[in-house]
Amino acid sequence: MNKFVRKNQLGFSVIEVLLVLVILGIIVFVGVYVFNNNKESTRDSSDATPQTSQQDINDAQDLQSTEDNLNDINLEELDTSELDAAEADLL
To answer: Which of 4, 18, 62, 66 is the most exposed place for a label (fewest CB within 10 A)?
Structure first.
């Protein structure tokens, strides 16, 4: 029987602890590398943001002017005779 092996071993050996630390270090290294690459690629693509924002502003202004025009319509003044005729044809 090997003299270095104990029957009721409590805890971990130094080799086991070092192995776990090395594996955790590799995982942390890969995570930091991926995080930094994502941050740089996001920074590179930030040049497109002002154009997109300006387009969004223009779209919002167009929508607002359309809504303002719709709100100016008086529903009581609308000629509904064509709609009434179409409804009568469906019935």
So the answer is: 4
Torsion sign over Cα 33, 38, 41, 46 = negative
Q: How many domains does the chain have?
A: 1
**Each residue of 23-44: pLDDT tens digit?**
999 999 999 988 888 776 766 6
pTM of the predicted structure, to 2 decimals: 0.39
The pair of structure tokens assigned to 89 is: 């044809």
Assess if residue 28 is contained within a domain. Answer: yes
- Of the CA atoms within 13 Å of residue 91, those in its CB half-sphere come to 6
Instruction: Report helix, strand or coil for 80.
Output: coil
Structural domain boundaries, residue 33? 14-38
CA dist 91 and 82 (Å) reads 14
